[in-house]
Write a structure and sequence with these properties.
ubiquinone biosynthesis; transferase; EC 2.7.-.-; 21 helices; elongated; alpha+beta; 11 strands; ATP-binding
Length: 548
């Protein structure tokens, strides 16, 4: 089965001439010989651009490769700009599977004899279909949310086996690239595929997606920025999820938004605020914010609110990454390129031997032209390409844990460009980041820390006298033990010094006695020297007297 799939992938690559994308200097002789041997698989799309050929090949290989191509489209360090832009066009839309089969899966997962036990108006024809799952509409009959319109998301049957097989092949290909590419260590192809495996397998678990949705909803409870539909967790399983159905306008349907009178400038600014709030306030962000997953509420067009769906891919940042990113953003906004260079070196992302002044100058060359321009005049894709090229010059290694963040930031750029091209991203984001940094480092951070730890301190307060007494008593015992250990060490050193001194004296007197004997000295002198030698040997084995 694996060999058959490998042949299918190889045939697809040859059919679209993807071997032409590999520079000859990077192609081992064995691959070149193999290509000649596969003469019956010619390139049938010579008239298309390399990026278009790669996109068509991935679409023909199926959902795993489509999603991988979508992820690669955000990795401008790995691909030329034209290919990355083509991969961004990949659509995660596939033919739906039989609705009757979906109904059976729902009934089995929820242990229903019939779909009518729990749902009214179940639509056999799916509302939407993607590579991992498809969605059906219905109305809840009982329990939490009774009477509400819902959507039921169902994982495609028998998809796990195909995904596992393709992931194993990807890992093999990544290992080959890591070995043969001159830039393999820095680009970390194996780590990229490993991160992709984790992301993709997370999408297969709808129980995890339900938990993600619940977390995001709690983070934005009663927020005017973002509304997350309610998930009915009682009716959600690993392969089935039931969620409130929302009615919104697709965020890329600008004509409808304008006709409804939506404040486009405010909508664009709120998109930026949603991103930075998720990343820096919550450290938990929706990492698949493409237009198909983001809608705008029809209510209050003067005070627009986003609606989010599809929470299979979320990102998290630890405290160090979040602090590092915030400081970098602020340094960029303040045009403090020296600070940016130092942060990269201090974090270990750029080797310590790199010249800071040269790195600072290179960053300034890339970033300075983009300031004081509206979003319409800024190409973040171009900036990213230049930044990654600069990083390659200074041996910066790609950080796989930030792949999702880069992807999300590009989606935010796309949303802003679509909704309000004149948006000043820097002006919108800078106050938010400055406020966040003040909360992390200023007096607010101290007060928040006191507030967070006050219950714990109050709980431990009655124990403080006992803890203090135990500490002082242990300190006294530790002092006594330390004094005893010090005395033992001094005695040991004295003993070794004693033996060394008398050992040297023994050796000297033995040598002297031998010389007296050989040179024919008087017997009384030789005997006296021998007696002293014997006494010295005996003293070297004797224990030294203890001294206070």
């Amino acid at each position: 089965m694996r060999a058959k799939r490998l042949y299918q992938i190889t045939r697809t690559f040859m059919h679209y001439g993807l071997n032409d994308l590999i520079p000859p200097r990077y192609m081992p002789w064995s691959i070149r010989v193999a290509r000649i041997g596969l003469f019956w698989l010619p390139n049938k799309h010579k008239d298309k651009s390399p990026g278009a050929r790669l996109r068509l090949a991935l679409e023909s290989l199926g959902p795993v490769w489509v999603k991988f191509g979508q992820m690669l489209s955000t990795r401008r360090d790995l691909l030329p700009p034209d290919i990355a832009l083509e991969l961004a066009k990949l659509q995660d839309r596939v033919k739906p599977f039989d609705g009757a089969k979906a109904q059976q899966l729902i009934e089995k997962a929820l242990e229903l004899k019939s779909i009518d036990e729990l749902f009214d108006d179940f639509a056999v024809v799916p509302l939407a279909s993607a590579s991992i799952a498809q969605v059906h509409t219905a109305r809840l009959k009982k329990g939490e949310g009774a009477g509400e319109d819902v959507v039921i998301k169902v994982i495609r049957p028998d998809i796990r086996g195909a995904i596992d097989a393709d992931l194993r092949l990807m890992e093999t290909l990544a290992a080959v690239l890591a070995k043969h590419l001159p830039d393999g260590r820095r680009l970390k192809p194996k780590e990229v595929v490993r991160e992709y495996r984790k992301t993709l397998l997370d999408e297969l678990d709808l129980a995890r997606e339900a938990a993600n949705a619940i977390q995001l909803k709690r983070n934005f409870e009663d927020s005017p920025l973002l509304y997350i539909p309610t998930v009915f967790s009682d009716y959600s399983r690993t392969n089935v999820m039931v969620m409130e159905r929302i009615d919104g306008i697709p965020v890329n349907d600008v004509d409808t938004l304008v006709a409804l009178g939506v404040d486009m400038k405010k909508l664009a600014e709120r998109g930026v605020e949603v991103f930075f709030t998720q990343v820096f306030r919550d450290s938990f962000f929706h990492a698949d914010m493409h237009p198909g997953n983001i809608f705008v509420s029809r209510e209050n067009p003067d005070d627009p609110q986003y609606l989010g769906i599809d929470f299979g891919i979320v990102g998290t940042l630890n405290r160090e990454d979040k602090r590092y990113l915030a400081e970098n953003f602020l340094a960029f906004f303040n045009r403090d390129y020296r600070k940016v260079a130092e942060l990269h070196i201090d974090s270990g992302w750029v080797p310590a031997h790199v010249n800071v002044e040269e790195f600072e100058s290179a960053i300034r060359t890339v970033c300075e032209p983009i300031f004081n321009k509206p979003l319409a005049d800024i190409s973040f894709g171009h900036v990213l390409v230049n930044l990654f090229n600069t990083a390659r010059r200074f041996e910066m290694e790609v950080q796989p844990q930030l792949v999702l963040l880069q992807k999300t930031l590009l989606y935010v750029e796309g949303l802003g460009r679509t909704l309000y091209p004149q948006l000043d991203l820097w002006k919108t984001a800078k106050p938010f980041l400055e406020r966040w940094m003040q909360e992390q480092l200023g007096w607010r951070a101290v007060l928040r820390s006191v507030k967070e730890h006050a219950p714990y301190w109050a709980e431990k307060m009655p124990e403080m006298p006992t803890l203090l007494y135990d500490y002082l008593r242990n300190q006294r015992h530790m002092v006594e033990q330390q004094q005893a250990a010090t005395a033992a060490l001094i005695h040991s050193q004295r003993k070794h010094s004693w033996r060394i001194w008398w050992g040297l004296a023994s050796a000297a007197t033995v040598v002297t006695t031998a010389l007296f004997w050989v040179s024919g000295q008087p017997v009384w002198l030789t005997a006296s020297s021998a007696v002293v030698a014997i006494a010295s040997i005996m003293m070297s084995w004797r224990q030294p007297a203890n001294q206070a």
